[in-house]
Amino acid sequence: MTKRFGDTTAVEDLSLDIPDSEFLVLVGPSGCGKSTTLRCIAGLESPTEGSIYIGGEHMNYRVPQNRDIAMVFQDYALYPHMTVRENIRFGLEEESGYTSEERDARVEEIADLLGISSMLDRNPDELSGGQQQRVALGRAIVRDPEVFLMDEPLSNLDAELRAQMRTELQQLQNRFDVTTVYVTHNQTEAMTMSDRIAVLNKGKLQQVGEPLELYHAPENRFVAGFIGEPSMNFVEGRHRNGTFTSEFFEYPFDSGIRDDVGDTSDVVLGVRPEDIDLKRLPEGGSSGLADHEFRMTVSVVEPHGDRNVVHLRHPEDASESETIHALTPGTTVVDAGTDVVVSVDPDTVHVFDAATGEALH
Length: 361
Ligand code: ATP
Hints:
This protein is of the alpha+beta class. 24% of the residues lie in helices and 28% in strands. It has 9 helices and 20 strands. A hairpin with a 2-residue loop joins strand 11 (233-240) and strand 12.
């Protein structure tokens, strides 16, 4: 489908097939079209071109109430004058085929599942943010819909609650086995909760795949830089006769990389911070360094307890134009200002076409 708002193309030619029971996460930078995609599936917007099917049925002209979906948004508006019980029960109001007793029983069952049974007779303003979020979830799942649509449902919660709700949401989804489309710009949520991730940029689908597939085999520079925290290092340069050269580095390609890169000249080297190995500078200084080793200066160290993010620059790079960052275990002591030996295993190197961003290797 394509969705335009006047001159703005919010989503362009998106084609996505989401199997039954899948947990699909839509990620991408602000304004890339995530919410618009979700709103089109929900029926809150209609596509400018293309069609949306749920369970094989064409949805374009169907109102949201008749799509058998449940939505949870970031600003999960609960009705303030209703109790928790009434708020959850409200999700069932439009459903026919339930007796009043069945509705009550279903509300109790869902409340139990979400751990909010003791709060059923309170008003929303007597609940914490996380508890309110659970009520909003309860209201959505009480109907047992065909599809869950969630737009940043955890973004108003603090870090601890977020982590807790992340696990709970996953367990819920596993239990109900409901096809879910989940929008977030949070990496951790995307990586840990999804069966597959779809990465959008400027309204265009960049890649869709399992989290580790996107991490290990990104199809382009955008996906490579977007997935992974801290992000992949990129060094722009030239490839000639099997050797990569940038202003400060020279890196020989092994035959595997050479075969893939072919005669492309303008390339970008990509290396994940966790694939950079740091060693002490040997007694003899830089002499005796191997092909894939470089002498670099530590400019900044960010300790995170379990690990350090170490910022490095080439000793002669006064402008720090080719700064790279590496990850070391928290127990490794590295001091700013010292020189170290950095090595990059050719097996871990990614190479992109500088012009198109397409992954070559
Ligand atoms: P965010 O992460 O910031 O919520 P997003 O990826 O969800 O962003 P969308 O909200 O889908 O992005 O917006 C995609 C593009 O469409 C943006 O350029 C936005 O300004 C535009 N857009 C969205 N809704 C409308 C609208 N109702 N009218 C005009 N332009 C819109």
